[in-house]
């Protein structure tokens, strides 16, 4: 992206939840629509999705990134959905420059997975803004993901919305057990972890966010780190002058936090 002076864009973490949120009218999708009205139109979007989790840091370099239906067992209308946003080779190369060519590279074998398009379908329904995805390197420690987010902070001054998409708590085994039993009471570990994360954002305490996953509640909330790590990129891209808002909050299926965090 050209480094012209732009109004500073917020950074956003969004709890994306079930792929069905792309086509359902429910509490969460209503929250996404309300959130859309709080966001200025960016020049481009850099999305860090929980669903591109592999060994390496990569950027999508597609001029027309495909819509990836990376899930199974859902109704046909969900598989028929497309999100035809353009890509941005320029932004992908800019991110490589910020992170360093030894750490990041551009690839063309991915596109927009459901962590990205199911929420952008509500936030930018016209698909009128270029979107680039950044992968999450599964080999890195949480503190290293936070550092990568800090390296991306300047994009906010270039008209780029830095968006992480995951969930503050994401224990699917517990969630599915709750769904089958009909008991969707939020367990104490999910409630406490969600509150700890919210408090850390309010206090701009990125260091705490990078280590909170090591607590008992953190391990219960995230058997795998894929849905937690996107929030570290957003925390890293923020600063202590950013206003902190939670435009969506609450739990789906008892233990799945749907909290979103808007910074700036």
Tell me the layout of helices and strands:
Elements (H helix, E strand, L loop, with lengths): L10 E5 L11 H10 L7 E11 L2 E4 L15 H5 L8 H11 L4 E4 L6 H10 L7 E7 L4 H10 L8 E7 L5 H10 L6 H15 L3 H6 L4 H6 L8 H8 L6 E5 L2 E2 L3 E2 L2 E4 L1
Parallel strand pairs: 1-6, 2-5, 2-6, 3-4
Antiparallel strand pairs: 1-10, 7-10, 8-9
Can you put this structure into words, describing what you see?
Helix content is 34%, strand content 19%. It is of the alpha/beta class and 264 residues long. It has one domain: 3-Layer(aba) Sandwich (Protocatechuate 4,5-dioxygenase, Chain B). A 6-stranded mixed beta sheet has the order 5-2-6-1-10-7, sandwiched between helices. The protein has a two-stranded parallel ribbon with strand order 3-4. A hairpin with a 3-residue loop joins strand 8 (251-252) and strand 9 (256-257). The longest helix is centred in the last third of the chain and has 15 residues, at 188-202. The two termini are 21 Å apart.
Q: CATH top level?
A: Alpha Beta
Biggest β-sheet strands, sense, barrel? 6 strands, mixed
The overall average pLDDT, rounded, is: 96
The total tally of domains equals: 1
Helical content (DSSP H or I, runs of 4+): 25-40%
N to C succession of SSEs: EHEEHHEHEHEHHHHHEEEE
| Rg | 17 Å
Shape: globular
So how many helices? Answer: 10
Report low-confidence residues grouped into runs of 5 or more: none
**Total beta strands:** 10
Characteristics of this structure?
about 260 residues; alpha/beta; Protocatechuate 4,5-dioxygenase, Chain B; 6-stranded mixed sheet; globular
